[in-house]
Fold these 3 entries.
Entry 1:
Amino acid sequence: MMKRSLFKSPAIAILGLLLAGGCNPDNPQSILVASGPVAQRQLDLFNLLLWAVTIIFVLVCGWLVYTVIRYRRKPGQGIPEQVHGNTKLEITWTVIPALLLAAVAVPTVAAQFYITEPPAGSDQMRIEVTGHQWWWSVVYPDSGVVTANEIRVPVGKAVVVDLTAEDVIHSFWIPKLAGKIDVVPGKTTSMWFQADEPGEYLGQCAEFCGESHAWMKFRVIAQSPEEYEAWTQAQLADAPQPATEAETTGAQLFITKACIACHKIEGVPAAAGVIGPNLTHVASRTAIAAGVLDNTEENVRAWIKDPSEFKPGNIMNRDGLAYTNPQFALNEDDLNNLTAYILSLK
Amino acid sequence: MEHGRHPAHPTPMTYLKVAAILAIVTFIEWAIFFAPESMDSIKLTVFSVLSVMKFALVVMFYMHLKFDERLFSMFFVGGLTLASGVIIALLVLFQALL
Amino acid sequence: MEHTEAAPHAEHATTTGIDHRKMLIWAFLGSECMFFGSLIATYLVYYGQSISGPGPADVLDINTTTVSTFVLLMSSLMMVLSYSAISKGDVKRFRVWILCTAILGSTFLGFQFFEFTEFAHHHQEFECPPALDRPAQYPDTACMDGATHYEANYGLTPRTNLFGSTFFTLTGFHGAHVTVGVIWLLSLFGYSFRRRGEDLIRDGGLNVDLAALYWHFVDIVWIVIFTVVYLIGVTVA
Amino acid sequence: MATIAGVFSRPTRPTGIWAWISTVDHKKIGALYGVTAFVFFLVGGLEALIMRLQLARAEHGIVSAEVFSQLFTMHALTMIFLAIMPLSAAFFNLVVPLMIGARDVAFPRLNAFSYWVFLLGAFILQTGWIVGSSPNTGWFAYAPLTAESFNPSKGMDFYVVGLGVLGVSSVAAALNFIITIINMRAPGMTLMRLPVFIWMTLVTSFLLVTAMPVITVGLIELYMDRTFGMNFFNVDAGADVILWQHLFWVFGHPEVYILILPAMGIISEVLPTFSRKPLYGYPVVVLSGITIGFMGWAVWSHHMFTVGLGPIANSVFAITTMFIAVPTGIKIFNWIGTLWGGSVDLKTAPLFAIGFIFLFIVGGLSGVMHAISPSDAQQQDTYFIVAHIHYVLFGGSIMAVFAGIYYWFPKATGRLLSERVGKWHFWLTMLGMNLAFYPMHFLGLDGMVRRNYTYPEGMGWDFWNMVSTIGAFILGFATLIFVHNFFRSLRKGEISGDDPWDGRTLEWSIPSPPPEYNFAVIPTVHGRDAFWEQKHGSGHGVHAPAGGAYDHDEGHGIHMPSPSILPLITSLGLGIAGYGLVYSFPVAILGAAITMFGTYAWSMEPATAPDEH
């Protein structure tokens, strides 16, 4: 909090405006307020550098402007003294920056090691995240929970994330919790983060990965350990059976319209696809379409109707029979029923 | 056209000697290759040394770098060093150093 | 081959006393080092990373390649001899040696062509799997009548695996350089018949010198490829 | 002998368009480079403006996601390869022989060849706009997004072949300038008397010659994968797609210095002239330029801090990157040292140079912030980086290019650019530049990812995006002012005379515009800043080439290389081969045959037609 007040201090308003003052730390993806130790460590370094470069900027540019004003050519001025250099001065302004940089190198290297792995002996858990064009699948190997685009974690626990990609390179980034790491097909990279306070943290793919790169988002939801445990248990259950007529029809449509080719729903044996997100408990998520749309009836319906309206080039539109084969096309009733079924998958 | 600093080139006899060494070294390499497997660990070193030797002989005598302008050596060795540096750096980064 | 590019008066009065073109070829060779260096780096980074075979030990034949290496090394000898001849004004000897160089270079290319085709059609003996493990459409009937081994195509093409891609690209680009070299040498050979080779003799054989430097460079690149890809490559595998 | 290979008769004393097509004169080639590059600069700027319009508001629908991908890819490729690099090449061509007291470059026809190959490579790269599929993966083209399976459009093929052809042009030009600088200096011009611009040209040329082959290999591998189904970046075959990134950045980082070192060279000429003092600490400035070029090879992985190379590799590259700030800082201090105690004439050229220092400090300092690998994990791929690269490439390279244009325009044309319009140009550029790019720092820190074609409301990005768009349009307007100034001054500008700025280097000792042969008498050099010494110096008996000599000697007896059509033909073959590699192999073979024919004819053609005099 100390650092935050520094930014807002009126005494440095001008400098602040020049440097980071244009930012509002309350913005959902601002890196200027950290909510976990990794992001905090990165922010501390950033702040250190910010102040260092601010001072250097003021000194050097001040010197530049002063020089230009003071030595402006005056009418009738003759040829100035032809100075070729000054060895002592030049050595000084070589050595001082070198020393400053050497001083910065120490915390840099220390932080680089810190952000790579959580401290030994800390309370840890692991998750596995896979990047797809343009969504994320999430697996909790310890409990067996499988979900997508929404990562629930308990507060105060170090979460080690092992990442890989299904297709092209992506990058996994939750600004308020930790800096990004690339998600590379054929390799596993890893990073860790920890949320210190409960809340919802926005994340997004940071490496250009094709047409809908801009819409490859996700959320991290940090909860108390009890809430997290309850969530885990709920996720492990099979999908609820359809209750209303609309839901039952929707459940059948889910099979007959070939949604099952790509989507898995635990408890529905036919629905075992692995190309798209696991939908067993899709209704329990706060958002759909990889964090793009809030999970409301209106949005679910609009998304099923025409995914490309929200995500140009997406694979569901490209390959799904409901969109490519007129025999499988969805009419208005189908949309209503499917929406009802999806929203029943709490 | 002659310019004052035309380097003194070796005679055809030298060329023949170099060729003989090159041929012999290639034969040795061939022989070592079929040596027993127990020698595999030192084979790599020997191959590398022999290869560098052949390389250097051709560069120094056939390309006359030993007798020619230092500038040429700078161009060539510069490119060679940089290329080696890139190869080694990549092997280290991919943790593929043999 | 080339007439000097420089303004005529500057020709004899360069700052360093070195001919422009000779400096050009050396700077160019420095650049070529980076080119082949990057190709070799790719080869090494991918060494042993192929998911499927065949690998270096399956297809590479050290005997054949030792001979082709020897051929290329000897072509370098012919090359220096032809340069030595032209710098003494001996056009006739020059013609003999440069033709020899070109022929040896072409022989090397022939070897490479043979090698490439051979790799693509490479057959290897495999142990017959136990009858129960055989897939339904087992391709080879050889194992049917109680044989323990059968022979099958185990060829390497640029598309087969990582090794194939890196190998053919590296050696292929070397081969392309040799091809350019052979064309260059033959052009010089033809050129020596014009005005009895006066143009070649005139600047101390500089035109031949340039081709020679290029030729030897291609030769030393092969020395590295032979060691890295063939000798060490097969030994480690 | 005047008939080449029996087909093309050699153009003699050509005029009109033919004079440009067959020219081997470095000044004309420089002008061709300059005009072509500036046209592409405008094209790249237009692409940027469309993108800024799209991003001005949340969920704006001006262009589709696909078109936006093509726009940001082509904006980078156009600005880097078709604007800044050839603008540098334009200065190399226009200035290098004049500064070192030479009559032309070492290989005049190769020089023309470089230009034509550049032009054809540029066409290939831009073909996508005509056929509707430009490269769309970002200029860095990370595998495997570039693979056929993910990217079947021809766009990536134009990328591969276009960059390959441009590489040929760059290497040929760079070799030419290396030889020219080492081998064609006027008597007495030792290496430590070379103007700093020449030094930076030399370092840049060495970087080009060594860096281009690396990307060429990467491009070849990508081409093999896409065209022949090879496996270089095929994960299923065991390939490591990170290899592309290494090959790309091993080239890409030296490339950054290829873009900025010529700019630093220009600044090092402009500042001493307009403060009437020699460059402060010349040896150190030269040495730091060489150091930057050399260290440029040891820092490439800082573009890959988030790839997961591991903490050791990241730390090593973080430290090497930080220390590259030392030689850069030295240059800045020495430039200010040059101004200190001088008599600073604030004409437009030095204004741009001072603007360069100011903006480059901002970009350089944010560069140091990126070098800190742990916090770079937050900044990487956000608008914070976009801000940084525009401060160094626009605030750096382009500002220096403008400084250079205002500085040397009178030498090239004999007329001055309007100072009054120039001041407007400068201040509007400064305003637009900072308004367009400074807010991007804020956007990056607020978490806006780069290369997103749009963004939702409620992220706090709307305001600064709008400001940035307004800034971009001011910048565009400022550039139009410059274009106006350029064309107006070309026809009506004040006559400059030979030496309007009281220049220090040899190009100011000859008429403006220079005669075809540059120097009637090759000057003898007795010190650094040769021409200044001659005018104000300690009375060395420098041979005075200017004045009377030119009035009486119209260049008779000076043999200049004759015009030749063969560079164009040879490069045309390359261009045809390039399109052939994209569309059809028989065409590629035809192109190769034309190139071969051109090479033969070229090698048989004397540099100077004997029957000309």
Note: Chain B is about 70% helix and 0% strand.
Entry 2:
Amino acid sequence: MSLSREQIAQRVARELKDGYYVNLGIGIPTLVANYIPPGIEVMLQSENGLLGMGPFPTADKIDADMINAGKQTVTAIKGASIFSSAESFAMIRGGHVHFTVLGAFEVDVEGNIASWMIPGKLVKGMGGAMDLVAGAHNIIVTMTHASKDGESKLLTRCSLPLTGAGCIKKVVTDLAYVEIREGKFWLLERAPGVSVDTIVKLTAGPIVVPEVVPEMCF
Amino acid sequence: MSLSREQIAQRVARELKDGYYVNLGIGIPTLVANYIPPGIEVMLQSENGLLGMGPFPTADKIDADMINAGKQTVTAIKGASIFSSAESFAMIRGGHVHFTVLGAFEVDVEGNIASWMIPGKLVKGMGGAMDLVAGAHNIIVTMTHASKDGESKLLTRCSLPLTGAGCIKKVVTDLAYVEIREGKFWLLERAPGVSVDTIVKLTAGPIVVPEVVPEMCF
Amino acid sequence: MAGFNKVVNTYDEALAGLTDGMTIIAGGFGLCGIPEGLIAQIKKMGTKQLTIASNNCGVDGFGLGILLEDRQIKKMISSYVGENELFERQLLSGELEVELTPQGTLAEKIRAGGAGIPAFYTATGYGTPVGEGKEVRVFNGRSYILEESITGDFALVKGWKADTYGNVIYRHTAMNFNPMAATAGKITVVEVEEIVQPGELDMDHIHTPGIYVDRVILGSFEKRIERRTVSQ
Amino acid sequence: MAGFNKVVNTYDEALAGLTDGMTIIAGGFGLCGIPEGLIAQIKKMGTKQLTIASNNCGVDGFGLGILLEDRQIKKMISSYVGENELFERQLLSGELEVELTPQGTLAEKIRAGGAGIPAFYTATGYGTPVGEGKEVRVFNGRSYILEESITGDFALVKGWKADTYGNVIYRHTAMNFNPMAATAGKITVVEVEEIVQPGELDMDHIHTPGIYVDRVILGSFEKRIERRTVSQ
């Protein structure tokens, strides 16, 4: 069974460590906040200028001056800080954010990522994604392993215009947890009930399959 | 009679305009603050991170956390602001300070200024002077016209290592008010009782003497 | 005698001097922290052929989006656009030009503009369409691209409170691009919710020192919310 | 479990990991806003061959000046030095190296280091000894030189108050280089006058967000005044 969006988020969340400052992109990455493992604390950075993002507000606490990078109304935790966009991206570009989770259209064995532009379609923009992938040391990409038509999104070479070059090392898809090393995908874990064969078949780039590929547990 | 330090400052102060943000260097430039013409307001910027510098404190109000760029204890006026050194020099480098007054060892007809380094002598550093001369649109240099030995400090080409290249347009010395234009010094005013001949003799660079050279009044 | 009193009483005064073809830097992120009244004044003035550097371009009928209705914008410099149909239509028809710029690079370009830094190197965008045609340079084994700064004829800023000297503080995430915008305009206009006397704002906690600010106007704000999201 | 509690209780912990030959970025302007206790700890540790980026180098017997006594400093990166005899002597004898850097360029190099910007262009120093050997480039008809950023193995910061998460505020002109220094250390240590609980500092007015800070220590400060100047 391929992972649900929630399970992808849950698997990613296991990579969190106590004391991490974390930036979560829009979509599946946002869900990671719901699965922070017990006993650890992380602090969420929102690139529009908020460190220490809290949950959505209750209806009576909504404040138009308090939004996240997805333009949703949010709250701030005690000990949060607010700063300008220049300061926010100084943090990101300067490598101060420990952990970043982002969606993508494609990744490849060189660690390239394409996530913002499909030629021929209207391009809305990269927002902060290019800064995030260039600045973070520790990025996990979340996406489906292949399109609905079965076309792999883990490629030898991204076909779409890039968001960043050589910056991705880890990918969690609905089928597998994959690391990018030495120009290859390394299959680390598989979704419950998904065979190695299925994963290999849906991975277009070269993939290394270790002797044991543990099944994820939820 | 050559101008006193106070008179040089007084002459410079007449160039102030209402609403100017002003940075005054150490020495004679600092004295300019004592001669702000009546009816105008200026605000003093101190490059260690203070906009709206006030007078020295009374003994009971001294605060070690409140100093100026000369490391003297100061006060702040109502409506002052405090900021980091990076922000302070963003203001300076970005051309937001309207008016800067600085001392110098030499200036030349190319608008070069030398004010920080005498080869063979111990060099203490340029502090913020290089940033100030590079950033300001409107700089007045104050200095004596010549050394005690009668060697001119207004040269065809500075002999000392530069603080800034091509950035000086106005000089007030103890003898004259001089502008730098088209590769020449232009004699605009002379100190009371100082002859044009004396000034010309003590100016090593090419100097243009208009028909009328008014005497300064104090 | 004006001294340092930056307060103007009408929007006409606030944007006096804004003419066709100028470049504007506008604060705001989405609809949060945008100078609503100043934008409305541009619409009223009918100024055309504007280049606007702003992270986004509002939505249909609100924010910078209203300047699309009369085709007042020639070009947007933004990181994310197209939340509005009108924008898409004008873009596809070629009436509107967009220079897509990564959000952090945009913020830094505006900061650099205000700080007298003509250009800087960043890894952001290297190897992507954003880096095409830009100088690449290696520092410590990593590749960076050269990005040039942005300045504007006008900067339009939304503050929370300002004193009459133009010292400004922002509220919560309505800060966003506003502090950088404030530094990068030849004429910087700040629209605020409250004007106070000098000395009322804590001098150690001014976000935008008055030296950057030319005009301050008291505005009134709808503060429309783009994505109202609540928890139960 | 540590979570985000950055508070350490001893100076040994505060500077654990500092070793010979490292680069330190230190906040402070003159003797104002300097991390007195952290400097004293370096003297106690006897760490040698240090490169220190700091606007000044203290005076004889106070501030960074005390690190000269046992020749702990190999090189200073500063805009103004030599307020102390010992400094002059070690400089003239060649025991100490100085890289004189314009004050604004130094501030920006440290900021750039923290912000992931490897280099930037500035007009400051063009045509002077500071510009020698540096790339010159013309933007809009004006010449600029390329300056590279600075980062440190340690950044030593003097704050006024910090919360346990490492959010810091500074007091008056004791801010100076401290906020930039805080961003540019692999390990950033902040010595403060008061430690408070998260939430006690206004989130809209944090000068240094805790993300930059690794360790916070409660210090005690002499706050020596370099030029006591009073009006009557």
Note: Residues 106 and 159 of chain B are 8 Å apart (CA to CA).
Entry 3:
Amino acid sequence: MTIRTEPMTVNVGPQHPSTHGVFRVRITFDGEDIVEVEPVFGYLHRGTEKLAEERNYVQVVTLTDRLDYTSSMINNQAYCIAVERLLGVEPPPRAKYLRTLTAELQRIAAHLIAVGFFVQELGAFGTPLMYAFRSRERILELFEMLCGARITVSYMRPGGVFADAPREFWPALDRFLEDFEVEFAEMEQLLLENEILMIRTRGVSPIPPEVAVNNSVSGPVLRASGVNWDWRKQDPYDAYDQVEFDVPVGSHWDNYDRFWVRIQEVHQSLRIIRQCIEQIEPGPARLELPLVLRPDPGREAYGRVEASKGELAFYLVSDGGIAPYRCKIRSPSLINLTIIEELLVGWKLADMIVSLGSIDINMGEVDR
Amino acid sequence: MQLPTGNGPLHERTWGIDREEGQMVNDLISISSEPIEVPFIEVPDDLKSNLLVTSVDALVNWGRKSALWPVSFGLACCAFEMMATAMGRFDIARFGMEAFRASPRQADLMIVAGTVTWKMAPPIRRIYDQMADPKWVISMGVCATSGGPYFGSYSVVPGVDHIIPVDV
Amino acid sequence: MAVREWAGQELSEALRRELPEAVEGFDETAAWVNPSQVGAAAIFLRDEPSLDFRFLNSITAIDYVEYFDVVYHLTSLKQQWCAVFKTRLYGRQDLSLPSVYQVWKGADYQEREIWDLMGVYFEGHPNMKRIMLWEGFEGHPLRKDFL
Amino acid sequence: MSCQLAADNVLYANGLYRLVYDLVGTILPCWLSYVIAGLVMIFVLVNAVLLGAAVITWAERRLLGRFQNRVGPNRWGPFGLFQPLADLLKLLTKEDLTPDGADKPVFALVPILMVAPLVMMTAVIPFAENTSLAALNVGVLYILAVSSITSIAIFMAGWSSNNRYAMFGAARSVAVLISYEVPVVLSLLGVVMVAASMSLGSIVEAQVLPFFLVQPLAFFVFMAGMSAELNRSPFDVAEAESEIIAGYHTEYSGVKFALIQAAEFGGVGVVSAIAATLFLGGWSGPWSEYLGWLWFLIKTGAIVFLFIWFRATYPRLRIDQIMAVSWKFLLPLSLVNLAAVTLEVFLLRGPEGVLTTGDLGIMAVINVVVTVVAIWVFGNLIRDRVKFQARQPSDVVVPGVTTIEVH
């Protein structure tokens, strides 16, 4: 006797506990196996690009905070670099180091969230996530000292940073680095060699490098696929040409590697932060720029950084006015999602959640 | 949800659903130009002094207050602050609130954390309807309350109280 | 070891050798490509080993009221260089361009987004649904004449 | 004193029952006192289970807080002990929704069917010497039979909810329950064989040396199997919150949800009690005549703690891996245990068929070795080797960048 089966179409999201916000995907299942997927976006589409055309160059910084709300600092950085390229100016060295330092702190925070939720989606009941948030709170405290905000920082401005770090910031940073070593080692001990984590993620959803490149994937996902491409190395901005660090790459291209690459990047970020603390020298933290910026008409600039999710770029076009004529945001989360079919089809429902977690999308950035 | 039938890739079969949902969004925009008033419940005077009713009420209210389970429903940036409240540092578990229920049927409190877009409005409305009484809504942050920095955008709801009644 | 950025002239000359009818000119940073030839140019740019632009960074459309510019940013990971090419579409109604979906799959969502927000249709894209906004939304919000 | 309880009644040994029966029997007819005494017993049982569930929810929330660097509920009452009370009050006064298109009678029946087996299982557990409500001589068999009702209830919940996530949860849960029943039964066979009885009371008495030392393999299989049957981590696929919302009870709210939750946490308590009885020696301990209940509670608490610890530590397995663990790992292990125990009992028992303490000691030594070897052998056999080899780096790799690679 054969049992008649039929595929079942399920709508996952927009309100689903582990789709990272309001992502929605329609999936056809055959039993528990995924046959077809169709992602549906736009549940957080706020029209950032249109609003940016109505505000002046400095005000747009506040909008960039809310793109990828787990790494606001890096968003600020990308936008400021684009504006600086548009104006043809360079920030002073101290500002460069401060930017690099805060961006790396933010990268640690973002990767902690990514790793925490990745394991949460594997089914751990909150413990790794709590560990991750414990360290993240410390980083947010440091940000509070710098600019008074925890998430929507708006710390960087075109031409430097909003203000130099207060005197209390440096000892606090040292204390954080000291404690974080211990806390992170604890978390690694819990996760890296965990047998269940290994069998759930090893060999699941591999993305070959050719596919990844053709799909314009960037960031840790691309590096986990075995391509050692990191814009911090290839096109050093701010102070990244002054510091040394390695690029972790995966050799199995699977979910575990995407997880592992993030863990290793946290170590590299710590290295960068240490070097920044050593190399930073007193000086102005902001370039004197007019209050209202007016770049020359017809100029355009493509400013990009290696954000925690991948290549984040702002493409600005100026018409000589006080607001950008066009502000295109190349968001890594959206474009990394292009591989969703390769990632999900043929795997199981439980793997789907984990794979989505492993590419670490952020809806603020996907929908903008 | 109607099962998509027919042949071809999934995204072609779902055109009908997309159109329906788009229609729903447009309908909702047309009917929600004004904020929804929250009805104020007047307690009759003769009930106020009733010993039995008040003490049971006090007990029940204490129970409701001390075990307020939010639905895990994050929209944007504020969702991360909402999660942070459940984590080690702020720990709303102390007040018995840590049980973030994924199913709206089992939750009492909906924290609208983040910008509400018109496309998201019908799902919010639906989740609110699915929650069992008594239920409360918190509008967290300026984006949810009035649109905030996105006020005036073509796709953002100017305040979640246009869609569902908000308590806080 | 910074990435080298190609000047517009350099790219246009490289293109002109193989596809003379595709190139319309160049400016400081970008080569201008004939809109109907975008597909052919894309395949050439990706597959020619001396160019090797296998990574598509982004596609952008800009509304200049009389015409639309569509900008393609490319990178070669192996050779470590970047280039930009642009194409210009005149008019405001029924705009269409050949899709590069088959060349770079990374163009998928970006082309859909441009269709949704700018109203430039991409021929040959398998799924030209609205991506950000809902079905039944009127107009294309990123156009300058919206609102 | 008009009524006399027959000596062959299963409740004869129960002091409380006899007390109620005799008291009521003095004024009312015998059949009525029989019923009333039964109702009293049921009342006690239901309360024991629900109270146990409440305490376990509290313990779980506090302990999870502890594991996760936070405090946990501490505002209401001493140490937050009133927290379950608040939960209960709130859930009782909440609207009771039945989804449109649900199979209403089945939907309403589920919570009752979830709690009932637990209450029934509690009836045979000896809390101290001679305190089990019904000293059944087929206790183990009875527990196994009754506990399988839960799988039907779960499937009913998934089916009647008219929700696809619930259906997913139910299908997964039933698959898990059925496949884990087999190793659990086999592991219990070893216990029964050594104790030479199916009555829980006699099993406790037979544990001069606790059975988790005598049969560590059986204990391991039983704990793994039971955490699967209880839908506890790492086998909690049936209500995998990050995957399928809340699994089979997605659509339940209010009182029904409260009952399902109670059944879930009560289940943990009951299973821990059974494990404590079967493997940790139940109420036996120093001064067990007076402090038996304390020993029993301590041992049960230890196992509850173990379950909570698992939950705080482990991620979840995938459904096919769970099945693989059951059929490829636990089943062989339980068979090994059964074979070893059979041989040992056959060789060691005395002429009149009893095992002495010394015999148990010898068995313990042998079985510890067998356990370590068997777990190592089978653990290496089932390890998934497919799909996991390092691949060649592709030609898109950029030269001249220092990299670190995954080992």
Note: Residues 8-18 of chain C form the longest helix (11 residues).
